[in-house]
Structure formats: C-alpha cells, structure tokens
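Issue: ligand-bound run for adenosine monophosphate - logging full I/O for the record.

Environment: standard queue, default settings, no custom constraints.

Inputs:
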Amino acid sequence: MSEATPARTRLSAIKGTKDILPREVRAWQRAEGIVRRIFELYGYREIRTPVFEATELFEKGTGQTSDIVIKEMYTFTDKGGRSITLRPEYTPSVVRAIIEHRLYIQPEPLRFYYIGPMFRYDKPQKGRYRQFHQIDIEVFGESDPAIDAEIVEMADFLLQELHVSDTETLVNSVGCRKCRPAYIRELRRAAQAVSGSLCADCQRKVTTNPLRIFDCKVEACQELARRFPEITGYLCPECEAHFRSFRAYLDLYGIPYRVEPRLVRGIDYYTKTTFEITTAKLGAQNAVIGGGRYDDMMKDFGGPDICGIGFAAGMERLLSVARLEKQSESFMFIAYLGDEAKKAALRLARGLRRKSVECLFEFKERSLKTQLSRASKLGAEWSLIIGEEEIKRGRFKLKNMKTGSQQEVSQKEIFDILTKRIP
Ligand code: AMP
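Outputs:
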C-alpha cells in the first residue's frame, strides 16, 4: 500500500441498530398497512412528531426514576448548548404537541397513532435494540374504563390480523396519586427488610421509587418482589371500581386475561390501568404490546386536566412472530436485444408505468436467456421480449413467468392485458 492510500476501515451500522433491507421491507410495509387500517377503523388519526426533543420532556414525562431516563437515553448537547434527547418513547412527545397546538379545543376525536423509530441505550440482544420501531396509539379525554378495554380489544384484533399466536394478556391497576402513596410506604417497608439481598440498582430504588423494583430483570430481585405486598389490595374506591369495570368490559369482549399485580411497566406516569400482551413465541423479551393510562401527564405538563391512555408495540418483535401471507410480486420484466429494441422498451415502459404497471429492465448487454433467468430470479410475473424481428412485425412476445406460456401481442394488447388487472 502506498503512503497516500488510507488504511481501509470497515464501516458498519452502530451496535444495536439494524438495516432493514429491501427483501425485508415488503413485510414491514404489509404489517404497517394492517396497523394503519386497524387504527383508522377505530377512529385514530396519524400524528408525526420530531425524533428529538428537549431532554426535559422525557425527564418530566417518562419519569426521573424510570430506567429509561436513568440509564437508557441518547442525550447530547447540540451546538446551541441545549440538552437534546432522541425520543425513547412516544407519549411525552404527543402530549407536548397537543398542548403546543391546542389540539384539545378541536372538535376531532383525540385519538392518535404513530409509527416510527425510538432510541434506548440498553444492552442489545434478540428483541432488544437501540434503535427500534414502535407503533403507538394514544386517546385523550376518555375516562370511561370502556376505552381501556377497547384499546386492549384493538390490540388483540391487531395481533389476530398479524397472525400472532400464543398470546397472553396481563392487566393491573397501579392506582392513582390518592391511593398509591400508602401502598408505596408499605412496599418500601417490605423492600427495606430485604434490602441487603437486592441488587445495587434495586437498593437505590428502595429510596427513590420502590415500585421500580418490579421492573428489575435480576432473578433474585424478582423472587423477593413476588413476596412484596400487592397494589390491588391498596386501591382507593375509584381506582378499584375502574379496575373492576375495565375487567368486566374485557369479559364482554370475551378477551381472556390474567391479573398481574406486579405489572408496573417501567414508566413513572401510569395511573390506574396497565396492561401487556406477551407471546410464548418470543424468548426473554416476550412483551409485544404494552400500555396504560396516564391521567396526570397533560396537567403536569402545564396543559388542561385531560386524561390519557395508550399503548405501544415494537415492530421488530411483532414482525418476528407475525405470519404474513406472502404477496406475489406483480411486475413485468422487459427483455430486449439490440439498440432499436432498447428504444422501443424505453418508450413502452414509459407508457405502462403511467398506467400503473410496474416495469423493470436492466441496461446490460445480455443474451435473452440470461435476461429471462434474471426475470425469473427477481420474481417477475410477466416478461416481454423485444428483438429486432418483433419491432419489424410490431408484435412482441409476452411470457407468463408462472405458467411459462407465451403469446404474441401488439402494443395495444399488452396495455389491455396488463392494465385490466389493475382496478
Ligand atoms: P415500552 O415503551 O417500554 O412500554 O415498550 C412497548 C413495546 O415496545 C414493547 O412491548 C416492545 O415490543 C417494544 N420495545 C421496547 N423496548 C424495545 C427495544 N429496546 N427493542 C425492541 N423493541 C422494544
């Protein structure tokens, strides 16, 4: 190597991030199509917010004692000296947007959905990435427990449409600002008694927020936490009635569920309902969908006193367990020989694409046989063969790649055959 030649460095994607390659993108698009269709069926409308926000938004929203804020945020100082964070979750951003644009005064339903990337600096492993994608819904201004059940029912429908099997729905109530303090006191007392056996992180949580001990993934901590008092015994009459009614609506829908009193879901803002849907098809990271109610966030952010509820699902996890029907590629490959045929192919493709027929050809001098084998490898439904002879006669060979049958067609007939398939 001469001195002027720089050493070759292999550039690769950052740990915990993934390229979604063209061969995988079709599945993403199909799943996203299903997601959008279902969300819109329930009256949700898409909202898109920036990928980065002021760090303070998540500290205030997601919560100072959550693992996300303590350990997992991608935070940096920008050139203007502001502390910026790549969003680790979506709810605080949408609440900020609602307040900022006063969306709450509009006559539209306050049901929003979103599909996009999130960022968390956690230890990467199967099903856990540093950039991952969430689908997310949020409802504002509905305090009736019927909505809590309706979003679980929508999540259930979504999983059915994606053919995700072996699911289990876990539900809980984490109470409210009225009843939770008494429970936290009892929980702290129980945690303090075994503090020496908890991991260092959980020992800190005993003082900061013992509820977060339930999020710990260390087996010994989980074992100890199983003997801690359960929140369900401390709910105030309002939270208790809400939880009962939520479950009754789930029964009405015929959705089986299990009450899991330790389901606190890692985020500080939840009030009343929390839920999670897991699947046995995933390994350690078995939660596909998780959500809950957050009745105080809007007013804590300085907005009106409007309650909220929502859920999020990880697209990577959903896709790893979804069974999506393969859709056949329906495009036409144009195989041509010679310069005149190339010109005819260019003109023909231009017309066909304007009629929504997907056409593909490659600008390489290749034999007809090689071009047809390329067409078959690419999964073309049709191949059109144009040679000098065909141009002279004004008739081309159209080959159905699935059946192998071939017919001679005029330019007009090509349009008729290919465009009549398109509604
Ligand atoms: P959360 O925002 O923590 O309530 O998570 C909601 C859903 O997002 C989970 O059920 C997962 O499907 C997905 N999820 C959360 N964290 C990750 C991650 N680091 N990598 C991939 N998916 C994730």
